[in-house]
Write a structure and sequence with these properties.
CATH class of chain A: Mainly Alpha
CATH class of the largest domain in chain B: Mainly Alpha
Strand content of chain B: under 5%
Structural class of chain A: mainly alpha
CATH architecture of the largest domain in chain B: Orthogonal Bundle
Oligomer: heterodimer
Shape of chain B: globular
Number of strands of chain B: 0
Largest interface: A-B, 90 and 86 residues
Distance between the termini of chain A: 43 Å
CATH topology of the largest domain in chain B: MetI-like fold
Radius of gyration of chain A: 25 Å
Strand content of chain A: under 5%
CATH topology of chain A: MetI-like fold
CATH superfamily of chain A: MetI-like
Radius of gyration of chain B: 22 Å
């Protein structure tokens, strides 16, 4: 170690500050959250977040109680399953809506494509809450949509329904906010397809239907997988959309976690829930990476 | 031909789905009625209400300040990270920088909340929000800068070295001017992400500081008022301008980030 090579110095100077910053403000907090999930409420770090709750053995030691409690009450498993189900439905709805659009853009003349993509991104120009608020207005009881549907229902002698504050509204919100995340990777993938493949399939007598299902669709799977990861994962942790658009029973993982930190203030339990969510997300991300790598020309 | 008609009609419906709610927000911001229910007549009343709402204006000023400061630091750290990830074989840095981008935001929010309150003993407020915003923006800047570098011909840098440039000279005279569009796009993206952020701010702001998204959230949680339409319309216009600016500097940046 007489003298450091200049390349080594450069390497440390360039990568050092961001590495240190992220170690301190991303990795350390994450590890502390893991630790917190094994603590008792009110004991952690002296600044007790829970009032009262005097348990024996406070301030000391680690416990599996939070995890045991999670598995002992089916309610929590149910909320996780419901969140996964809503994420799945939202993802599928996104695929169904995004696919035709992505396909249309990919097959449009080159000079139109950028504009068509821009038109998909543009709603991002508005704040996420504004987009949710826009849906609150549109699905509201006095709007045309609700009165039309309830008019039809009334004609059949059914009781009126509320579009807003329902699981339906939650799914619509999830789809609305995340749709571009599905369109973009799909389009990036579809755009790269070689059109001569379809010509060849046609020459060999394949119908339009089988050209799509046997050529285009299999080739687009990597795009579907990366889009699905971009929709599914954020939907899973979302609390604001169920909060604003959902009814009282539309509680998802995100709402559960939020309540532990800002409502009931049981931080260790909230940390445990966050760890469980992380585990689910990592498992899903691993799965998506696996699936995406099978055909490695993916869109993203 | 029948098939493309189907594609077109579905696509138009999707575009309508994307835009209709936002159009409604903008239109009702000029509506002379307390309810967002039917068109009554044109008014600028809600904009006047908005500009005399001190809480809202204060929140707006906070949001701008936070976005400016956190975008500055995130751009600095993110550019370094992007260059480092491109240039060196690093294993930890890409994970450290990219993971927060890919995780649900709530996880970063609550882990920082625990960290600030329990470990650092901070009072939540402006400073904790700034740190939180820098943390989640660094990754986005790094991705854009690295993408910019990845598209470049390595021989330029070799040429600079062959001609006797020191690493610093190579950076200042060759690398930096070339990645500058990526850096600017990254900075604008960080600014937009910061000013738009709700979830992470929600957990790290405490009662110490109010930002625009927090203000909007607490308003729409209680009641729907046309003042929210007015502030939404203004915010949309602002962010739209920034996006157009960003796409000028680096057309691929937006695609790369999404």
């Amino acid at each position: 170690m007489s003298k450091l090579a200049p390349a080594t110095i450069t390497r440390w100077v360039v990568s050092g500050p961001p590495t240190l910053f992220m170690l301190l403000f991303f990795l350390a907090p994450s590890l502390i959250m893991v630790l917190a999930s094994f603590r008792y409420p009110g004991a952690f770090g002296g600044l007790a977040p829970v009032f009262g709750g005097g348990r024996p053995g406070e301030d000391t030691g680690l416990t599996l109680e939070n995890y045991q409690f999670f598995f002992s009450d089916l309610l929590y498993t149910e909320i996780f399953l419901k969140s996964l189900l809503i994420a799945l439905i939202s993802t599928l709805a996104c695929i169904l809506m995004a696919y035709p659009l992505a396909l249309l853009i990919a097959r449009s003349p080159k000079r139109h494509r950028d504009l068509m993509v821009l038109l998909v991104i543009l709603p991002f120009a508005s704040n996420f809450l504004i987009r949710v608020y826009a849906l609150m207005i549109l699905l509201g009881p006095q709007q045309a949509l609700a009165s039309t549907i309830n008019g039809v229902l009334a004609a059949f002698g059914c009781a009126p329904v509320s579009l807003l504050f329902s699981t339906f509204a939650v799914v619509v919100g999830m789809v609305y906010v995340h749709l571009p995340f599905m369109v973009l990777p799909l389009y990036t993938n579809l755009e790269k397809h070689d059109p001569t493949l379809l010509d060849a399939a046609q020459d060999l007598g394949a119908s339009a239907w089988s050209r799509f299902w046997r050529v285009t669709f299999p080739l687009s799977l990597p795009g579907i997988f990366s889009g699905s990861a971009l929709v599914f994962i954020p939907v899973l942790g979302m609390f604001a959309i169920p909060d604003l658009l959902g009814g009282t029973r539309d509680i998802l993982i995100g709402n559960l976690i939020k309540d532990q930190f800002l409502g009931t203030r049981d931080w260790p339990f909230g940390s445990m829930l966050s760890i469980m969510l992380t585990v689910v997300v990592l498992a899903l991300a691993g799965l998506a990476a696996r699936l995406g790598q099978r055909k490695r020309d993916g869109g993203n | 031909m029948r098939r493309s008609a189907v594609l077109w009609s579905v696509s138009l419906a999707v575009y309508a789905f994307l835009y209709l709610p936002l159009v409604v927000v903008v239109v009702y911001s000029f509506n002379d009625s307390r309810l967002n229910a039917e068109w009554v007549g044109f008014t600028l009343h809600w904009y006047r209400v908005l500009f005399s709402d001190d809480e809202m204006l204060g929140a707006g000023a906070n949001s701008l300040l936070i976005a400016f400061v956190s975008a500055t630091f995130a751009t600095l750290l993110g550019t370094m990270a992007g260059i480092a990830m491109h240039r060196f074989r690093l294993r930890a840095l890409p994970l450290l920088v990219i993971t927060p981008v890919a995780m649900p935001e709530i996880l970063l929010g609550v882990s920082l909340l625990i960290f600030f309150v329990q470990v650092l003993n901070f009072t939540l407020g402006l400073f904790s929000v700034l740190i939180a915003h820098i943390t989640f923006c660094v990754g986005f800047v790094a991705i854009v800068v690295r993408a910019r570098l990845a598209g470049m011909d390595e021989s330029i840098f070799e040429a600079a070295r062959d001609l006797g440039a020191t690493p610093w000279q190579t950076f200042r005279r060759v690398t930096f001017p070339l990645i500058l569009p990526g850096v600017i796009a990254g900075a604008l993206m960080a600014f937009t992400l910061s000013i738009d952020d709700f979830v992470i701010t929600f957990f790290t702001a405490g009662v110490g500081v109010h930002t625009l998204p927090l203000q909007i959230y607490s308003m729409i949680k209680i009641a729907v008022t046309p003042e929210v339409n007015a502030v939404s319309t203004l915010l949309m216009t602002l962010t739209l301008g920034l996006i157009i600016l960003a796409s000028r500097f680096a057309p691929d940046a937006l695609k790369g980030a999404a």
